Amino acid sequence: PSPSSSTPGAEQKEKQYRAHQGFGDHHGGVTGAHTYFYADEARCDQHMETFLHCIDASSGSSEDGFSAIKLTALARPQFLVQFSEVLVKWRRFFLQMAAEQGQAGQAVLEMKLEVEKLQEALANLGIVTKAESQEWFVGESLGTSSTVDLLDWNSLLDSRTKISKPLLIPNRQTGQLEPLLSHFGEEEDLQMKRVLQRMDILAKRAMEKGVRLMVDAEQSYFQPAISRLTVETQRRFNRNQAVIFNTYQCYLREAYDNVTGDVELSHREGWHFGSKLVRGAYMEQERERAAQMGYEDPINPTYEKTNEMYHRCLDYVLEEIKHRRKASVMVASHNEDTVKFTLRRMMELGIHPSEKKVCFGQLLGMCDQITFPLGQAGFPVYKYVPYGPVNEVLPYLSRRAQENRGFMQRANRERDLLWKEVKRRFLAGNLFSP
């Protein structure tokens, strides 16, 4: 939707990040993943211990291994929703001002606010005086620049959350000023510190053990917070190589903006961009929540549009690997066309499998007809193995089977190919050699 203040679509969008009792502990409609819900910090610490054991197990079982973690296991979901709401409101405020400076319709990263006009707008809205807003830029790298883009704007939020004076921004519906951090008090500040400490402990263990850490994507109303916390960890641990991987769900309409924004941020700050690309596992739940709460469905309208988005994001990251060699991607897909697309583009761009900048991932017990040929051809390929007590991982596997209803057809195809090869070898008289 257009970012102008009169647009009802923008008001709907903010509803996405409001707490909703019916979805506070809601597993219905999630076929492909697990979301953690609990009441206290002690449970977060228990989950962290489980993840530490998982990192150790990954280190002992494979070279250059991965462990996947979920932030709904390390932070209260309510906190993640509240933090997401703050991030989205701040971004919306930027888009509103960009529209007022005549930049509506441009690509998000191309929008640049003129600092002079920005300071005047903030003063006219009664948010801060010109003198106060000038202080915002002191000590920031943008102090020397005459324009501010979205990444600069986001960096301003980091320092704004530490000031005692509440930051007021316009409410789109009422036109009144209200605190940006209205639900973000001392308790939320403490929760922010705790979750970053837990991620820090996990990242340090992963580095010690030679394991890379993938932060899974979750529902869209948690995702802005999850991505922001992951980037914060990437800043610290991806200085020399991609240790921390962020996950991008390509069924989201804004997937390309998310990928390109984080790549550009990694350029500016000098760290390695680590990414896992998935299609997405929460479609039914996302659509049900959007309908109930009255905001725009965040999911691409068709499977074809999601495929286009996946290939667009993937191509962008592959180009980044070619030009800078400071990016890595896991193509986490069961789609044969996507795997073929990746192999073709790697060849065209001169990205060799031995560089290990591109790897592939499939679920345990599924799509072996993709996994094994990739491995035999020398590509880094991983099986996603659920880790934990049997009674917890079996429901996970059954949900994955449900999500991949077509996998039995692929298994039949694989069996037919194997049987054909056995007959060929038998007739050629070399049953036990290729």
Kindly describe this structure.
- By secondary structure, the chain is of the alpha/beta class.
- The chain is 52% helix and 11% strand.
- The chain has helices at 8-15, 41-61, 77-100, 115-124, 130-136, 150-160, 186-209, 223-237, 255-269, 283-293, 303-324, 336-349, 368-376, 390-403, 407-428; strands at 66-69, 113-114, 147-148, 168-170, 177-179, 212-215, 244-249, 273-278, 327-332, 358-363, 381-384.
- Helix 8 (223-237) links the parallel strand 6 and strand 7 (244-249).
- The radius of gyration is 23 Å and the shape is globular.
- The N and C termini lie far apart (58 Å).
- The model is unreliable at 1-11 and 17-34 (pLDDT under 50).
| Total beta strands | 11
Please write the CATH class name of the largest domain.
Alpha Beta
Structural class: alpha/beta
How are the strands of the biggest sheet laid out side by side?
Answer: 1-6-7-8-9-10-11
Number of helices: 15
What name does CATH use for the topology of the largest domain? TIM Barrel
The domain tally reads 2
Portion of residues in beta strands equals: 5-15%
* Biggest β-sheet strands, sense, barrel: 7 strands, parallel
Low-confidence stretches: 1-11, 17-34
Q: Give the CATH architecture of the largest domain.
A: Alpha-Beta Barrel
Share in helix: 40-55%
**Termini distance?**
58 Å
Family: Belongs to the proline oxidase family.
Cofactor: FAD
Function: Converts proline to delta-1-pyrroline-5-carboxylate.
Pfam family, one: Pro_dh
Layout of secondary structure:
Elements: H1 8-15, H2 41-61, E1 66-69, H3 77-100, E2 113-114, H4 115-124, H5 130-136, E3 147-148, H6 150-160, E4 168-170, E5 177-179, H7 186-209, E6 212-215, H8 223-237, E7 244-249, H9 255-269, E8 273-278, H10 283-293, H11 303-324, E9 327-332, H12 336-349, E10 358-363, H13 368-376, E11 381-384, H14 390-403, H15 407-428
Parallel strand pairs: 1-6, 6-7, 7-8, 8-9, 9-10, 10-11
Antiparallel strand pairs: 2-3, 4-5
